[in-house]
Amino acid sequence: MSDGSGEIIIKGASVHLEFNGTIFIKDPNNPKKHDSPTRKITQIVVADQDGVEKFNSGDNPGGLKWKVTVFTK
Fold first, then answer.
1. In a 10 Å sphere around its CB, with 0-12 CB exposed, 13-18 middle and 19+ buried, how is residue 2 labelled?
2. Under a CB-based contact definition with an 8 Å cutoff, are residues 18 and 4 in contact?
3. Nearest alpha carbon to residue 25 among 42, 41, 38, 16
4. What gap in Å lies between CA 44 and CA 38, rounded to an integer?
């Protein structure tokens, strides 16, 4: 659960996104996009439904430039 500190959480089975709307502001030109120009991604953690960590990028204070794609059916 996002606690307001800037996490973006994607949960599966059905699709559920959680993020702080006051930090990630809606793009007026594209309502599907939200942005925070003052923040950068510093770590990516992937865990399964039981909370078992499957991937952890580690802390990268300089920021990460990744594209994470989640597919659904």
1. middle
2. no
3. 38
4. 18
Amino acid sitting at position 26:
K
Q: Report how far residue 4's alpha carbon sits from residue 23's, in angstroms, rounded to the nearest whole number.
A: 8
For the stretch 39-67, pLDDT in tens is 888 999 999 989 999 999 999 999 998 88
Distance CA 32, CA 72 (A): 17
What is the C-alpha separation between 25 and 14, in angstroms, rounded? 24
Model confidence, pTM: 0.72
**What gap in Å lies between CA 32 and CA 8, rounded to an integer?**
15
Length of the chain: 73
